User: Fold this.
Amino acid sequence: MLNLLHRHVLKEVLVSTALAMGLFVFVLLLGNAMRDIAELVAAGKLDFIVFLKLIGLLIPYVAAYALPLGVLTGTLMALGRLSSQLEITAMKSAGISLYQIASPVFVISFIGMIAGVVVNLHYAPQSRLAYKQLMVSAISENPIGFIEERRFIREFPGYVIYMGDRDGPVMKDFWIWELDDEKRVKLFLRAKEGEINFDQTNNALVLTLRDGTAEQRDDSGSEGLADEPMRSLFFGELPIELPMGKIFGEKSQRQARIKEMTFSQLMVKRDLALAEETEAAEGISKNRMKVQMHMQKSFAMAFSVFSLAIFGVPLAIQVGRKESYANLAIALIIAMTYYFLIIAVSWLEGARALRPDLLIWLPNLIFQAVGFYLIQRANRH
Assistant:
């Protein structure tokens, strides 16, 4: 009887989880596509085949977020439906504990947790890097086409570009910000008009600005343009050459950022930072904290599949809603609360003495503790 019960609950949860995950993957893909690439495809500036490749590369990235949401929603929908139809009550009346009833959920969430670790620390960073490389390749083939009117252009690493209007090859109200490694503005240019050309011989984007001003941050460490001291000058015509190799970098030379590193690459980077600390005889460094914070966050996000499922089991039974939209709303509220706690801990990255790389596990511990407490409480009634 118990095996039959497990198969019944397992089927219900698997079907609901698959449907929920499909929905969340679709929504997240749509959101990312609309934000980054759909507009470029509609304007004819990005090949449709490249668009499909980019969508495919986004799947592992969005799956990292869709997996915990999908398992949580599937648990709420399946157990909520069984509870509303009094099947859970009948099972408990037959002497079957809530832990036995929910055991298929524990198995699914545990498998999802393992899958989350693999996705977060292997496939997601690889796809993220490949996605950026493909975008870089597409932009470098037609850089002029990617500068649109009344839109902040951030596809050029190290620069933010804005153009108010365009009259053929002539740009109107042209702005450009050059950023340093800390993403602070070190040079700001604004011109009434200008032209943009691509020098195929030197493989460089040439911006010729006219009638404008340039403001440069002083080397004394000012944080932004609003701070003093500043150096300003006016110019009649100012050519700016942006070598494509410098802007985008060759694929073989481009260094992956922390979020684009797999687990093995992160371990190497962490060991290098640890060796530097040993030589300098200092505590945990900023570089090592960044690496460890990202690693622990990736693990914690994977473990959230189990934590949210545990929290969802007693909630689904107590609420007992069979309506999909109601369970979806509950799942989103729970997930948003969890992600808010993750973000709140992430803000402490600069406070290395507090060990935010360990505190990042606090949301999981809270949700699991509350979840098991509610399960135990519901099991008594």
About this structure: DSSP finds twelve helices and five strands in the chain. The longest strand covers residues 185-199. Residues 295 and 311 are 24 Å apart (CA to CA). Strands lie at 159-167, 170-179, 185-199, 204-217, 230-243.
